Amino acid sequence: MTVPVLELLGIKRVYKTAAGELNVLSDADLKLQAGELVGLIGPSGSGKSTLLHTAGLLERPEAGAVLLDGIDCLKLDDKARTAMRRSKIGFVYQFHHLLPEFNAADNVAMPLMIAGVSRKAARETALELLAEMGLDHRADHQPGQMSGGEQQRVAIARALANTPRLVIADEPTGNLDPATTARVFATFIKMAREEGASVLVATHNHALTTHMDRVLTLEDGKLVPYEPE
User: Fold this and answer.
1) How confident is the model over 96-106, as a mean pLDDT?
2) Residue 191: its pLDDT value, please?
3) What is the rounded distance in angstroms from the CA atom of residue 138 to the CA atom of residue 32?
4) Phi/psi class of residue 45: alpha, beta or left (left: φ > 0; alpha: ψ in -120 to 50)?
5) Residue 13 and residue 138: Cα distance in Å, rounded?
6) How far from 179 is each of 2, 123, 132, 175, 206, CA to CA, in Å?
7) Which UniProt keywords apply (predicted)?
């Protein structure tokens, strides 16, 4: 049987607030196979970002397991877990988090150079990804010289630079116009269908979900199939 790219088992996530403990995730389970494109929708505050951060090894749950290619990442030490995240996961945040002192090409090339790829080869890959995003003419511009939508597309290109096994995107097209949204989503589809990545996208854009293999939502801290009203 094929090992899932991502498997969440019994994930529990609790936040302490002034009013007491807030159970955000309760025994949440998820399996993503290679080449699968899955949507996650739901209102703000339902736990979508928490789930994505847990799956992306950015937050540690109170209970449960996070497996990448069958490896239980929560049993790894911090260094090994960071290496796993850098080599296997591409994360697209709601906000771009670009390095302001570097131009677009260098921002995209950064994960590759951290992984040991030469600067020349990393830049070539960065330029290809920027062209795919319609930003080849912005390669030498710094983030402050670009619009918010352009910066977000640079961030998406950066997340895909290492050809990750798992792409996690948290409202990746929230600040983009419809034409750019379509271009970005086509890139996610290509990652899944042609490169075999698992892609998990949280979105408020229900139109995008028609192109996904499955759509999930969170109810009482658990992942369940989304049923349109």
Assistant:
1) 91
2) 87
3) 34
4) left
5) 40
6) 36, 26, 13, 12, 16
7) ATP-binding, Cell inner membrane, Cell membrane, Membrane, Nucleotide-binding, Transport
**Rounded to two decimals, what is the model's pTM?**
0.89
Structural domains in the chain, CATH included, are 6-225 (3.40.50.300)
What pLDDT shows up at residue 75? 92
Q: Which amino acid is at 95?
A: F
Would you give the distance in Å from CA 158 to the centre of its chain? Answer: 11
**Amino acid identity at 125:** T
Q: What is the pLDDT of residues 115-149, one digit of tens each?
A: 889 999 999 999 999 998 889 899 999 999 998 88
Say if residues 64 and 24 touch (Cβ distance below 8 Å): no
3-state secondary structure labels for all residues of the chain: CCCCCEEEEEEEEEEEECCEEEEEEEEEEEEECCCCEEEEECCCCCCHHHHHHHHCCCCCCCEEEEEECCEEHHHCCHHHHHHHHHHHEEEECCCCCCCCCCCHHHHHHHHHHHCCCCHHHHHHHHHHHHHHCCCHHHCCCCHHHCCHHHHHHHHHHHHHCCCCCEEEEECCCCCCCHHHHHHHHHHHHHHHHCCCCEEEEECCCHHHHHHCCEEEEEECCEEEECCCC
CB 70 within 8 A of CB 78: no
Whether the CA torsion 160, 166, 168, 172 is positive or negative: it is positive
Which among 85, 57, 91 is positioned nearest to 168, based on CA atoms? Answer: 91
